[in-house]
């Protein structure tokens, strides 16, 4: 019997960010392993014209939740969606709902955040700092609360090279920032933002660091733990391999590469690609929830959910395997044949951007214009290159995260829990994982049918022929121009032609002799 699963049975669990990538997998695993939990409260806002109910209905009827329904057929009854906007005062939760949350909640998983790298400082502080403080305040008024789990990121201290499982202080107190945002206007905030974030690469990682500090300062006598995942990727094993549902992190780049838009990346091939499967993060999170509630550590423990020091993979290996998978299971209607060129050199990177990205986009847009269609490739390419440049910081560096707490927890689990809540990435086979990942991107993000693979392969062959034809034509044009202008080029040309002629004559003569 799993002790972790038993712990969550009969519990009322509050999840923020349950409609997000990590939140959905967390909810699924909880329902599948502890089907007799009492209720999962999820704080949700209406979005994209959908009501709360429509959003929940769509999530629970998605492929991700198919397996869970076999063990928990009444899954809809276990979820109680509560209207909430985390950027508002008191989260805009109604009095009745708030009362219910305060009196019933046993466990909190705080996953909600804005993960955009370029969000405004005001919004990112509201979500990643102020909302965390507000939730901690709510938690302190919950008599039945046993544990509060805060999801942060391994990059909250990415301005350091070696990162321990401790909360590092930020140069400016979060409270001072929260207070000043109340009276400063937006223009001034954006002006001071770069000065505040100092050597953090973006607003996201900076505000996640502030969020951790808030957790430390406002923890009162709460039983809290922090999880710090690195780059969260598709599922490894559960509920099935390769599940993924948004374009964040590597996902968008895999699409851009598979469709042949992105063929070079400013990346350090030997740098560690610290990906961690989302189900691994979820298993660790649930195990930490159990351990923190049952063992009540004296201080707030931080757990790194990273792969680098257990089972390192670098960007070169990842790129090669991603490309190999595109060969086997290509994406449909690619713009060009997929290719992956990783370079850490600024000059080479500029060259590849001009030759491999911008020039083909401009040529294609000319073709669209000539055929009476609206040009769109340059705009799309600019968007992709902007995204790639935003991620560059993370693919050109390696970090060392210590994992003492995570390893300690692994050794505390029973063999059954180690199996059901496996977060040991030493067992992960990268080649297999990446193949399933790319397949998952094709199936669940691009919604492409596997039956289209032969046609996709044919299309790639056609692209290869076009590529050869184009290169040959280009070579001939350049050569012709050179010959017209330079005596030296003409001499080389006559030398090659006479050499070929002699070779052919010799070949013909010797084959005649044999006969
Ligand atoms: C050369 C061959 C390569 C072979 C492939 C090998 C794979 C290597 C992958 C390497 C990836 C490394 C990733 C490192 C990530 C580090 C993460 C740190 C860990 C965290 O805690 S962060 C959590 C993750 N957060 C994010 O990833 C958010 C990043 N996104 C943003 O901040 C913004 O989207 C961005 C990039 C600033 C763009 O903003 P904006 O210009 O305003 O555009 P939109 O957001 O509105 O989106 C417009 C359009 O682009 C699509 N989109 C969004 N994100 C991506 C993406 N990552 N890749 C591709 N496309 C993306 C979006 O869906 C929109 O499309 P529409 O069709 O709706 O217009
Ligand atoms: N993905 C990654 O690579 C990594 C993620 N993390 C951390 O993991 C956690 C989850 O990330 P992930 O699932 O990827 O992110 P997503 O962007 O997929 O999910 C974010 C969640 O937060 C919710 N949310 C955002 N703003 C509000 C708001 N104003 N009111 C209510 N809910 C809101 C979103 O709701 P809605 O659906 O309505 O937008 C969504 O459910 C975050 O804390 C992130 O920092 C850490 C390391 C890496």
Summarize the structure.
The radius of gyration is 28 Å and the shape is elongated.
Biggest sheet strand order reads: 3-2-1-4-5-7-11
* Annotated CATH topology of the domain at 3-240 and 277-312 and 401-426: Rossmann fold
Average per-residue pLDDT, rounded, comes to 96
Distance between the termini: 84 Å
Poorly predicted runs are none
Structural commentary:
- The structure is a single chain.
- The protein is 54% helix and 10% strand.
- It is α/β, with parallel strands linked by helices.
- The strands form four sheets. The chain has a seven-stranded parallel sheet with strand order 3-2-1-4-5-7-11, sandwiched between helices.
- Bound molecules: ligand L6B7KVET and NADPH dihydro-nicotinamide-adenine-dinucleotide phosphate.
- The site of NADPH dihydro-nicotinamide-adenine-dinucleotide phosphate (NDP) has 28 residues, from helix 2 and strand 8.
């Amino acid at each position: 019997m799993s002790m972790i699963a038993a712990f969550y049975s009969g519990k009322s669990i509050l999840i923020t960010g349950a409609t997000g990538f990590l939140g959905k997998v967390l909810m699924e695993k909880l329902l599948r392993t502890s089907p007799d939990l009492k209720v999962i409260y999820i704080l949700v806002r209406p979005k994209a014209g959908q009501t709360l109910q429509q959003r929940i209905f769509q999530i629970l009827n998605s492929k991700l939740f198919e397996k869970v329904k076999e063990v928990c057929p009444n899954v809809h009854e276990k979820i109680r969606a509560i209207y909430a906007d985390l950027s508002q005062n008191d989260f805009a939760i109604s009095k009745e709902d708030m009362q219910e949350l305060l009196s019933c909640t046993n466990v909190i998983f705080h996953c909600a955040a804005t993960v955009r790298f370029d969000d405004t400082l005001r919004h990112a502080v509201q979500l990643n700092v102020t909302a965390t403080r507000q939730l901690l305040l709510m938690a302190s008024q919950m008599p039945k609360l046993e544990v509060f789990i805060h999801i942060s990121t391994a990059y909250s201290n990415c301005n350091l090279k070696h990162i321990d499982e401790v909360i590092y202080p930020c140069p400016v107190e979060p409270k001072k920032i929260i207070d000043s945002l109340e009276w400063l206007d937006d223009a001034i905030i954006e002006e001071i933002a770069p000065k505040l974030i100092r050597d953090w690469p973006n607003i996201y990682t900076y505000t996640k660091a502030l969020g951790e500090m808030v957790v430390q300062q406002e923890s009162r006598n709460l039983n809290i733990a922090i999880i710090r995942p690195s780059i969260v990727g598709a599922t490894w094993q559960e509920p099935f391999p390769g599940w993924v549902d948004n374009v964040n992190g590597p996902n968008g780049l895999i699409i851009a590469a598979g469709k042949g838009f992105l063929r070079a990346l400013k990346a350090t091939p030997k740098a560690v690609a610290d990906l961690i499967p989302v189900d691994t993060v979820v298993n660790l999170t649930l195990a930490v929830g159990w351990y923190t509630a049952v063992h009540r550590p004296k201080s707030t423990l931080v757990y790194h959910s990273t792969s680098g020091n257990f089972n390192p993979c670098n960007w070169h290996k990842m790129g090669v395997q991603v490309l190999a998978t595109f060969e086997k299971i290509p994406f449909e209607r690619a713009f060009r044949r997929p290719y992956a060129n990783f370079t850490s050199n600024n000059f080479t990177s500029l060259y590849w951007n001009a030759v491999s990205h911008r020039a083909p986009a401009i040529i294609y847009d000319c073709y669209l214009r000539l055929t009476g269609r609206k040009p769109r490739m340059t705009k799309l390419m600019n968007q992709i290159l902007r995204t790639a440049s935003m991620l560059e910081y993370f693919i050109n560096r390696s970090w060392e995260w210590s994992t003492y707490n995570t390893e300690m927890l692994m050794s505390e689990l029973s063999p059954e829990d180690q199996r059901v809540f496996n977060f040991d990435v030493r067992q992960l086979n990268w080649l297999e994982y990446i193949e399933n990942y790319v397949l998952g991107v094709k199936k669940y993000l691009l919604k492409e049918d596997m039956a289209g693979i032969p046609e996709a392969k044919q299309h790639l062959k056609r692209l290869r022929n076009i590529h050869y034809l184009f290169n040959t034509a280009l070579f001939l044009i350049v050569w012709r121009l050179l010959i017209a202008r330079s005596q030296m080029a003409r001499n080389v040309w006559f030398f090659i032609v006479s050499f070929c002629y002699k070779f052919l004559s010799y070949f013909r003569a010797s084959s005649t002799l044999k006969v």
